[in-house]
Specification:
By secondary structure, this protein is α/β, with parallel strands linked by helices. It has helices at 17-27, 59-70, 97-107, 126-131, 146-159, 176-181, 202-208, 244-267; strands at 3-12, 31-40, 45-54, 76-81, 86-92, 113-120, 135-138, 164-167, 186-190, 213-220, 230-237, 271-274, 277-280. It has a seven-stranded mixed β-sheet with strand order 7-6-5-8-9-10-11. Strands 2-3-1-4 form a four-stranded antiparallel β-sheet, with helices on one face. A two-stranded antiparallel ribbon has the order 12-13.
Protein backbone atom coordinates (compact mmCIF):
# COMPACT_ATOMS: atom_id res chain seq x y z
CA UNK A 1 0.00 0.00 0.00
CA UNK A 2 1.29 3.45 -0.88
CA UNK A 3 0.14 7.02 -0.22
CA UNK A 4 0.17 9.66 -2.96
CA UNK A 5 1.50 13.10 -2.02
CA UNK A 6 1.79 16.47 -3.73
CA UNK A 7 4.87 18.56 -2.94
CA UNK A 8 5.49 22.16 -3.95
CA UNK A 9 8.69 24.09 -3.38
CA UNK A 10 9.99 27.60 -4.08
CA UNK A 11 13.43 28.90 -3.21
CA UNK A 12 16.24 31.00 -4.71
CA UNK A 13 17.53 29.19 -7.77
CA UNK A 14 20.84 27.36 -7.22
CA UNK A 15 22.55 24.09 -8.02
CA UNK A 16 21.63 20.83 -6.33
CA UNK A 17 17.94 21.44 -5.53
CA UNK A 18 16.57 18.54 -7.60
CA UNK A 19 19.28 16.23 -6.28
CA UNK A 20 18.36 17.11 -2.69
CA UNK A 21 14.62 16.63 -3.24
CA UNK A 22 14.91 13.31 -5.04
CA UNK A 23 17.39 12.08 -2.44
CA UNK A 24 14.98 12.98 0.37
CA UNK A 25 12.08 11.26 -1.39
CA UNK A 26 14.22 8.17 -1.88
CA UNK A 27 14.73 8.02 1.90
CA UNK A 28 10.97 7.55 2.37
CA UNK A 29 10.69 5.07 -0.49
CA UNK A 30 9.26 7.74 -2.77
CA UNK A 31 8.45 7.13 -6.43
CA UNK A 32 7.87 10.29 -8.50
CA UNK A 33 4.73 10.05 -10.64
CA UNK A 34 4.71 13.57 -12.10
CA UNK A 35 7.09 16.52 -11.80
CA UNK A 36 7.33 20.05 -13.20
CA UNK A 37 9.86 22.78 -12.55
CA UNK A 38 10.56 26.35 -13.63
CA UNK A 39 12.99 29.14 -12.79
CA UNK A 40 11.37 32.57 -12.81
CA UNK A 41 13.99 34.92 -14.25
CA UNK A 42 12.33 38.08 -12.92
CA UNK A 43 12.45 36.96 -9.27
CA UNK A 44 15.28 34.40 -9.40
CA UNK A 45 13.01 31.85 -7.77
CA UNK A 46 13.06 28.14 -8.55
CA UNK A 47 9.57 26.59 -8.55
CA UNK A 48 8.73 22.89 -8.42
CA UNK A 49 5.66 20.68 -8.14
CA UNK A 50 6.10 16.96 -7.58
CA UNK A 51 3.46 14.26 -7.27
CA UNK A 52 4.88 11.09 -5.75
CA UNK A 53 3.91 7.93 -3.91
CA UNK A 54 5.48 6.46 -0.79
CA UNK A 55 4.85 3.52 1.55
CA UNK A 56 5.12 6.04 4.41
CA UNK A 57 1.60 7.20 5.32
CA UNK A 58 2.61 9.80 7.92
CA UNK A 59 2.84 13.21 6.22
CA UNK A 60 4.81 14.59 9.19
CA UNK A 61 7.51 11.98 8.69
CA UNK A 62 7.74 12.73 4.97
CA UNK A 63 7.82 16.47 5.59
CA UNK A 64 10.55 16.12 8.21
CA UNK A 65 12.78 14.10 5.88
CA UNK A 66 12.31 16.59 3.02
CA UNK A 67 12.96 19.54 5.34
CA UNK A 68 16.25 18.03 6.51
CA UNK A 69 17.33 17.23 2.97
CA UNK A 70 16.59 20.70 1.57
CA UNK A 71 17.06 23.11 4.49
CA UNK A 72 20.27 24.59 3.07
CA UNK A 73 18.29 26.06 0.18
CA UNK A 74 15.92 27.95 2.54
CA UNK A 75 12.86 26.71 0.66
CA UNK A 76 9.15 27.28 1.13
CA UNK A 77 7.67 23.78 1.03
CA UNK A 78 4.17 22.34 1.11
CA UNK A 79 3.46 18.60 1.27
CA UNK A 80 -0.09 17.27 1.23
CA UNK A 81 -1.70 13.87 0.94
CA UNK A 82 -3.54 14.00 -2.38
CA UNK A 83 -6.65 12.40 -0.90
CA UNK A 84 -6.98 15.16 1.72
CA UNK A 85 -8.76 17.92 -0.16
CA UNK A 86 -8.33 21.65 0.26
CA UNK A 87 -11.15 23.29 2.23
CA UNK A 88 -12.82 26.10 0.28
CA UNK A 89 -15.13 28.86 1.48
CA UNK A 90 -17.18 30.44 -1.31
CA UNK A 91 -18.40 34.04 -1.00
CA UNK A 92 -21.20 35.37 -3.20
CA UNK A 93 -23.63 38.29 -3.35
CA UNK A 94 -26.60 38.03 -5.74
CA UNK A 95 -25.14 36.86 -9.07
CA UNK A 96 -25.14 33.08 -8.69
CA UNK A 97 -23.75 31.74 -12.00
CA UNK A 98 -20.23 31.09 -10.70
CA UNK A 99 -21.56 29.63 -7.46
CA UNK A 100 -23.88 27.25 -9.34
CA UNK A 101 -20.99 26.09 -11.51
CA UNK A 102 -18.64 25.47 -8.57
CA UNK A 103 -21.31 23.57 -6.62
CA UNK A 104 -22.08 21.40 -9.64
CA UNK A 105 -18.43 20.59 -10.27
CA UNK A 106 -17.96 19.82 -6.57
CA UNK A 107 -21.00 17.56 -6.50
CA UNK A 108 -19.88 15.59 -9.57
CA UNK A 109 -16.33 15.17 -8.24
CA UNK A 110 -14.79 17.31 -10.99
CA UNK A 111 -13.57 19.83 -8.42
CA UNK A 112 -11.41 18.06 -5.78
CA UNK A 113 -12.24 20.29 -2.80
CA UNK A 114 -14.35 20.27 0.35
CA UNK A 115 -16.86 23.14 0.65
CA UNK A 116 -17.97 23.39 4.28
CA UNK A 117 -19.86 26.68 3.83
CA UNK A 118 -20.91 29.54 1.59
CA UNK A 119 -20.92 33.12 2.92
CA UNK A 120 -23.09 35.86 1.48
CA UNK A 121 -24.06 39.41 2.33
CA UNK A 122 -27.54 38.65 0.92
CA UNK A 123 -30.09 35.87 1.42
CA UNK A 124 -30.73 35.26 -2.28
CA UNK A 125 -28.59 32.11 -2.62
CA UNK A 126 -29.57 30.40 0.64
CA UNK A 127 -32.01 27.89 -0.88
CA UNK A 128 -29.56 26.98 -3.65
CA UNK A 129 -26.71 26.36 -1.22
CA UNK A 130 -28.74 24.42 1.33
CA UNK A 131 -30.19 22.26 -1.43
CA UNK A 132 -26.62 21.00 -1.94
CA UNK A 133 -26.37 20.16 1.76
CA UNK A 134 -23.89 22.96 2.42
CA UNK A 135 -24.06 25.44 5.30
CA UNK A 136 -25.16 28.96 4.31
CA UNK A 137 -23.83 31.83 6.43
CA UNK A 138 -25.49 35.22 6.06
CA UNK A 139 -23.12 38.07 6.93
CA UNK A 140 -24.80 41.35 5.91
CA UNK A 141 -22.55 44.37 5.65
CA UNK A 142 -22.94 48.15 5.74
CA UNK A 143 -20.38 50.93 5.98
CA UNK A 144 -20.99 50.99 9.72
CA UNK A 145 -20.70 47.22 10.24
CA UNK A 146 -17.93 46.40 7.74
CA UNK A 147 -15.19 45.92 10.35
CA UNK A 148 -17.35 43.63 12.50
CA UNK A 149 -18.50 41.66 9.46
CA UNK A 150 -14.94 41.07 8.29
CA UNK A 151 -13.87 40.06 11.80
CA UNK A 152 -16.68 37.49 11.84
CA UNK A 153 -15.60 36.28 8.40
CA UNK A 154 -12.08 35.66 9.69
CA UNK A 155 -13.54 33.73 12.62
CA UNK A 156 -15.45 31.55 10.16
CA UNK A 157 -12.26 30.97 8.15
CA UNK A 158 -10.40 29.91 11.29
CA UNK A 159 -13.20 27.78 12.76
CA UNK A 160 -13.76 25.89 9.51
CA UNK A 161 -10.01 25.51 8.82
CA UNK A 162 -10.37 27.12 5.40
CA UNK A 163 -7.49 26.86 2.93
CA UNK A 164 -8.94 29.04 0.17
CA UNK A 165 -11.60 31.76 -0.02
CA UNK A 166 -13.25 32.13 -3.44
CA UNK A 167 -15.04 35.35 -4.35
CA UNK A 168 -17.64 34.01 -6.77
CA UNK A 169 -19.01 37.45 -7.73
CA UNK A 170 -18.93 38.80 -4.16
CA UNK A 171 -19.73 42.44 -4.79
CA UNK A 172 -18.00 44.10 -1.86
CA UNK A 173 -14.66 45.88 -1.70
CA UNK A 174 -12.59 44.22 1.02
CA UNK A 175 -10.45 46.11 3.52
CA UNK A 176 -6.67 46.21 3.23
CA UNK A 177 -6.44 44.32 6.52
CA UNK A 178 -8.58 41.43 5.32
CA UNK A 179 -6.70 41.23 2.02
CA UNK A 180 -3.42 41.10 3.93
CA UNK A 181 -4.71 38.46 6.36
CA UNK A 182 -5.78 36.18 3.50
CA UNK A 183 -2.89 36.97 1.16
CA UNK A 184 -2.31 34.11 -1.28
CA UNK A 185 -5.47 32.36 -0.03
CA UNK A 186 -8.22 34.37 -1.74
CA UNK A 187 -9.17 34.21 -5.43
CA UNK A 188 -11.47 36.64 -7.24
CA UNK A 189 -13.14 36.46 -10.65
CA UNK A 190 -13.16 39.72 -12.58
CA UNK A 191 -15.62 40.34 -15.39
CA UNK A 192 -12.95 41.40 -17.86
CA UNK A 193 -9.76 40.38 -19.58
CA UNK A 194 -7.70 42.68 -17.34
CA UNK A 195 -7.01 45.51 -17.69
CA UNK A 196 -10.55 46.42 -18.67
CA UNK A 197 -13.60 48.55 -18.06
CA UNK A 198 -13.84 49.71 -14.45
CA UNK A 199 -16.81 50.89 -12.47
CA UNK A 200 -20.50 50.26 -13.00
CA UNK A 201 -22.08 48.53 -16.00
CA UNK A 202 -18.93 47.14 -17.62
CA UNK A 203 -20.85 45.39 -20.39
CA UNK A 204 -22.63 48.62 -21.27
CA UNK A 205 -19.23 50.30 -21.53
CA UNK A 206 -17.93 47.43 -23.64
CA UNK A 207 -20.95 47.61 -25.94
CA UNK A 208 -20.58 51.36 -26.35
CA UNK A 209 -16.93 50.93 -27.36
CA UNK A 210 -17.71 48.11 -29.81
CA UNK A 211 -15.46 45.50 -28.24
CA UNK A 212 -14.63 42.37 -30.20
CA UNK A 213 -13.55 40.18 -27.27
CA UNK A 214 -15.29 39.42 -23.98
CA UNK A 215 -13.08 38.06 -21.25
CA UNK A 216 -12.67 37.19 -17.58
CA UNK A 217 -9.69 37.06 -15.21
CA UNK A 218 -9.12 35.00 -12.06
CA UNK A 219 -6.54 36.52 -9.76
CA UNK A 220 -5.34 36.53 -6.18
CA UNK A 221 -6.87 39.31 -4.11
CA UNK A 222 -4.66 42.13 -2.89
CA UNK A 223 -5.30 45.55 -1.39
CA UNK A 224 -4.88 47.00 -4.90
CA UNK A 225 -8.33 46.44 -6.36
CA UNK A 226 -8.32 43.97 -9.27
CA UNK A 227 -4.53 44.16 -9.59
CA UNK A 228 -3.44 40.98 -7.80
CA UNK A 229 -1.32 38.20 -9.38
CA UNK A 230 -3.21 36.71 -12.32
CA UNK A 231 -3.94 32.98 -12.33
CA UNK A 232 -6.07 32.41 -15.43
CA UNK A 233 -7.78 34.37 -18.19
CA UNK A 234 -10.23 33.55 -20.97
CA UNK A 235 -11.84 35.33 -23.92
CA UNK A 236 -14.64 34.81 -26.41
CA UNK A 237 -15.01 36.66 -29.71
CA UNK A 238 -18.13 38.83 -30.13
CA UNK A 239 -19.45 41.03 -32.91
CA UNK A 240 -21.31 44.25 -33.61
CA UNK A 241 -24.53 42.22 -33.79
CA UNK A 242 -24.37 41.17 -30.13
CA UNK A 243 -26.57 43.08 -27.69
CA UNK A 244 -25.65 44.10 -24.15
CA UNK A 245 -27.57 41.05 -22.90
CA UNK A 246 -25.63 38.84 -25.32
CA UNK A 247 -22.34 40.22 -24.02
CA UNK A 248 -23.38 39.66 -20.42
CA UNK A 249 -24.37 36.05 -21.15
CA UNK A 250 -21.11 35.34 -22.95
CA UNK A 251 -19.26 37.01 -20.08
CA UNK A 252 -20.96 34.79 -17.50
CA UNK A 253 -19.92 31.69 -19.43
CA UNK A 254 -16.29 32.82 -19.54
CA UNK A 255 -16.33 33.73 -15.85
CA UNK A 256 -17.56 30.25 -14.90
CA UNK A 257 -14.86 28.48 -16.90
CA UNK A 258 -11.99 30.72 -15.80
CA UNK A 259 -12.90 30.62 -12.10
CA UNK A 260 -13.42 26.85 -12.01
CA UNK A 261 -10.01 26.29 -13.60
CA UNK A 262 -8.32 28.61 -11.10
CA UNK A 263 -9.96 26.89 -8.13
CA UNK A 264 -9.11 23.42 -9.44
CA UNK A 265 -5.48 24.38 -10.04
CA UNK A 266 -5.25 25.77 -6.50
CA UNK A 267 -6.83 22.60 -5.13
CA UNK A 268 -4.24 20.52 -6.98
CA UNK A 269 -1.32 22.69 -5.76
CA UNK A 270 -0.49 23.83 -9.28
CA UNK A 271 -0.20 27.57 -8.49
CA UNK A 272 2.98 29.04 -7.02
CA UNK A 273 3.36 32.73 -6.21
CA UNK A 274 6.55 34.53 -7.21
CA UNK A 275 5.94 38.06 -6.01
CA UNK A 276 3.41 39.77 -8.29
CA UNK A 277 3.39 36.88 -10.75
CA UNK A 278 2.21 33.27 -10.64
CA UNK A 279 3.70 30.06 -11.96
CA UNK A 280 0.90 27.65 -12.93
CA UNK A 281 1.88 24.05 -13.68
CA UNK A 282 -0.86 22.67 -15.96
Amino acid sequence: MTTTYVLTLTCPDQRGIIHAITGALLEVGGNILEQAQFTDASSGLFCLRSRFESPEDDVEVVTSVVDVGTHRFDPRISIRKEREHRRVLIMVSKYDHCLVDLLYRHETGELPVDIPAVVSNHEDCRELVERHGIRFIHLPVTDQTKADQEAELLRVVADLRIDLVVLARYMQVLSDGLCSELSGRMINIHHSFLPGFKGAKPYHQAYARGVKLIGATAHFVTADLDEGPIIEQGVERVSHADTVDDLAQIGRDVERMVLSRAVRWYAEDRILLTGERTVVFV
